[in-house]
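Sequence in, structure out.
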Amino acid sequence: MKNVSKENPKGRKRVVLVAGTRPEVIKLAPVFFALKESERLEPVFVSSGQHREMLDQAFSVFGICPDVELGLMTPGQSLPELTARAITRLSAAFTDLQPAAVLLQGDTTTVFAAAVAAFYQRVLIGHVEAGLRTGDLYAPFPEEMNRCLTSPLARWNFCPTELSLANLRRESIKPERCFVTGNTVIDALYYVRDRLRRTNIAAPEVAARLGVTTAFTEHFLARRAARWILVTAHRRESFGVGIERVCAAINKLTAMHDVGVLYPVHLNPQVQEPVRRLLGSNPRVALTLPARYEDFIWLLDRCHFALSDSGGVQEEAPSLGKPVLVLRDTTERPEGVTAGTCRLVGTDPSRILLEASLLLNDGDEYARRSSLQNPYGDGRAAKKIAELLDASV
């Protein structure tokens, strides 16, 4: 951990970026780099450590070393315990750092706790990816509550789309606190994709890092004409029956079609146990370690389509021309559904099989849904956010 002095010898105002999970790092990294170009602002990165192993992977992709690491996670902790500890430690960090503003991304417990801690110290708050809503406080849980309570506390709500801006207007968030910038995940995606294409990384290299067998690699990953599906499923609301239903659909799908499935399995035991129990013996399924971000983008760029409950995948896949079957009943990212690149299928095996078979059997339908425009931005969101902060902090 770096030593960050309370004093700022350059006289720049300090902006603290707080991240607790891999998506937060990925989506804040472009903003961090954009803020480093400012002559008025000094960005400082704080890692809460909510998802420690995946955090380290994400930081390494962008060559960032967090200035402060809080290490919040403890075995078997409850949400109240995590929230209380996060507020206390983030409050202490803000006291030491004396920021002019705190920048948060998304809807995790880290985000909510950091917003409360900053509010208590009267520090200005910027919320990146503000305004996403499902309308159901328990779906996703607890993320919907986290983002709904963060928006009123924020001085700057950086909305990815006009629809997310409209959500905040309906909640009576003042217009002067809301800005449409696009989503910074597109900035990060283009950064990593362009680097991957320059280096021309081969399938065996990625497969070796993920622990994919030689047989699966040669039959699917190394053959551009082969069709395989990328799966991510880890949402809390799918724990138990939901995950088991997704696995049942995957087994049926591989039995019905000449298709492979690659599934980087989340480290949570409630995901690991059912996935490995139900899919571990299927030779057409590769269960891997959680993929580093650059490896995940390599996979997403080469798969036929994605089965996912991840918000990030719903945003990233359209930029790479990949349809997404969303393993949820609701989504706070309806823009992709409206555009036609994403389709809600829930965890019902029959619905998953129907929609996946459509993409596998109907070439015209696949071509249509893989050529639609991404509604989440043009890769300039971080620059817009930095410019807004530079002008008003």
